[in-house]
Amino acid sequence: MGTDEDLQEKIAKGDRVLYAKFSGDEIELDGKPHLLLSRNEILAIVRE
User: What's the number of domains the chain is made of?
Assistant: First the structure.
């Protein structure tokens, strides 16, 4: 979840993060797709 300590307190593994359609950078790490987002690209955090 990056190095932003404030965001690490607000977003937990398993949370759904809403972002705009063309936000972030897509990368592949160990054969798995990941999306890198900056703080200002996060629109909402949804918890169940």
Answer: 1
